[in-house]
């Protein structure tokens, strides 16, 4: 009898979407674990929804944020959800156009400050819980990258981890314990890229296939546990 493959839904930004190589942090993991990956992540996506006044380029004001990605995903529950959501908020929004914010005092959607990063993140967690209440979900704290000031990365990553603890969502902490930090120029040169035509010598943001295989896949495999069928 043929056993149906389990499904994995990925939500987030270009590190899951795959940028120009179309290889993101979940692709190798899904292949090794025999998971069918449905990738809803979008380059440039944020937790904070974009507004027409946020960006000079109109196209950047219509990127679906994580709440929209989630709303547009199928109603059928997956076997597993993995998502990210710190990079573009830290790059473009937090402490620039919007405040970091703080966790709400309770779990009510009406309590979330949707004009802050924390409130938008919590809204995503609440919507995910409501839509897929029994699907295991994991947040990936992505690696350090020199495109964003270090203090701001620390701040946004700490808030994401705090909110995940509140909602009992496990964090796969590449940021703190993944052994990949592309502030190191040798790591950036070997394991990241800017253009799909030249898959190395990047600025440290988007890892190439070797980078994700070497640094992300082992931690994903070690920490993600699927319930028996």
From TrEMBL:
Q: Which domain of life is it from?
A: Bacteria
Pfam families (alphabetical): Lipase_GDSL_2
Q: Which InterPro entries match?
A: SGNH_hydro, SGNH_hydro_sf
Provide a Gene Ontology MF annotation, just one: hydrolase activity
Entry keywords, A to Z: Hydrolase
* Keyword tRNA-binding found: no
Ranges of residues in domain SGNH hydrolase-type esterase: 11-214
Q: What is this protein called?
A: SGNH/GDSL hydrolase family protein
Organism of origin = Lapidilactobacillus achengensis
According to the entry, what is the taxonomic lineage of the organism?
Bacteria, Bacillati, Bacillota, Bacilli, Lactobacillales
């Amino acid at each position: 009898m043929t056993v149906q493959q389990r499904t994995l839904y990925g939500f987030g930004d270009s590190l899951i979407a795959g940028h120009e190589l179309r290889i993101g942090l979940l692709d190798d993991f899904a292949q090794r674990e025999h998971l069918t990956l449905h990738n809803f992540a979008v380059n440039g996506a944020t937790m904070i929804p974009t507004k027409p006044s946020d960006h000079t380029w109109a196209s950047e004001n219509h990127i679906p944020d994580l709440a929209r990605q989630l709303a547009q995903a199928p109603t059928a529950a997956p076997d597993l959800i993995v998502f990210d959501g710190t990079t573009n908020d830290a790059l473009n929004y937090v402490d620039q156009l919007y405040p970091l914010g703080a966790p709400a005092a309770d779990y009510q959607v009406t309590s979330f400050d949707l004009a802050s990063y924390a409130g938008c993140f919590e809204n995503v967690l609440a919507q995910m819980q409501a839509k897929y209440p029994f699907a295991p979900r994991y947040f990936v704290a992505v690696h350090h990258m020199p495109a964003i000031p270090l203090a701001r990365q620390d701040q946004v990553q700490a808030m994401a981890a705090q909110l995940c603890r509140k909602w009992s969502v496990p964090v796969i902490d590449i940021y703190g314990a993944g052994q990949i930090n592309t502030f190191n120029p040798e790591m950036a040169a070997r394991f990241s890229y800017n253009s799909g035509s030249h898959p190395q010598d990047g600025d440290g943001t988007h890892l190439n296939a070797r980078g994700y295989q070497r640094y992300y896949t082992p931690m994903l495999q070690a920490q993600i546990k699927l319930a028996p069928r």
